[in-house]
């Protein structure tokens, strides 16, 4: 493991890094022969983070390939006049044909198989009988379960010919995820990811949504840790190999504020200005990262 031993912050009252389950101060802190660090047990006990094993990673990567094929299918079908319900049906049937389950369907009462978030909708838009119009932007968020492994990714697409605001917010959202990817390496922290996104997006006079965060994923839909898209350099949990989580910055053209519609899902910008998002599922490796839902940004 390419990680300095002192890269991981352990407090006196934290679980001992040896994985004994005892407090650090009652175990290796003052011991003459401290036991080797067991990162897997430490991350489980301290943060509830399940580091993924090679067979898990293979499974999540396979699900990720199906997620990417679904997004490609969405891209082919997005055009003026298509309804979000039609996109939902196409994605749903593709999942079933491939023995996969769309994770959103019935998740905490969500009624559809994908999320479709148009223009001022930030995330969690529910597919409906609304036809896409020329100049719209639409984020499609796909999470599949295949062989019990989850992968989660989304992209924002143009419908017809985009105007200047649409071009700007989609570019800034995509670049925000690219900036985040530069931070994905063991020894960096969760705060570094948020810092990279926030400093870039705010530098472009856009704003970062606070209420929704990236998340651990793979064995379940939403696992620890939370991955905020804002933050301070060096804050938060140290990244270690085997972590699998999403980064999914939601970037607003205007202010960061939002409200949730009466359906209890659809999150909308308070100022009704545009919002865009890109999401991938990432694995931290020994020397950097791998996207398990790779696509060009
Ligand atoms: N895929 C979303 C995410 O990125 C979660 C959608 S939850 C749903 O975490 F219920 F709305 F589908
Ligand atoms: Co996600
Ligand atoms: Co998602």
Write structural notes for this entry.
The protein is 27% helix and 22% strand. It is built from five helices and 15 strands. Strands 1, 2, 4 and 5 form a four-stranded antiparallel β-sheet that branches.
How would you summarize what this structure contains?
With 297 residues, the protein is of the alpha+beta class.
Sum up the structure in keywords.
297 residues, alpha+beta, binds 2-amino-4-trifluoromethylsulfanyl-butyric acid, binds cobalt (II) ion
Count all strands and give the number: 15
Cofactors, ions, other ligands: 2-amino-4-trifluoromethylsulfanyl-butyric acid, cobalt (II) ion
Sheet-strand content, in percent, reads 15-25%
What is the end-to-end distance? 29 Å
Whole-number average pLDDT? 96
Class from secondary-structure proportions: alpha+beta
List the helices and strands and how they pair.
Blueprint: H1 39-47, H2 54-77, H3 84-97, E1 101-102, E2 115-118, E3 121-123, E4 137-146, E5 149-158, H4 164-181, H5 190-203, E6 207-208, E7 214-216, E8 223-227, E9 244-247, E10 250-252, E11 258-260, E12 267-269, E13 275-277, E14 280-285, E15 288-291
Antiparallel strand pairs: 1-4, 2-4, 3-12, 4-5, 6-10, 7-8, 9-14, 10-13, 11-12, 14-15
The structure holds 2-amino-4-trifluoromethylsulfanyl-butyric acid and cobalt (II) ion (2 copies).
Residues 152, 215, 246, 248, 279 line the site of one cobalt (II) ion.
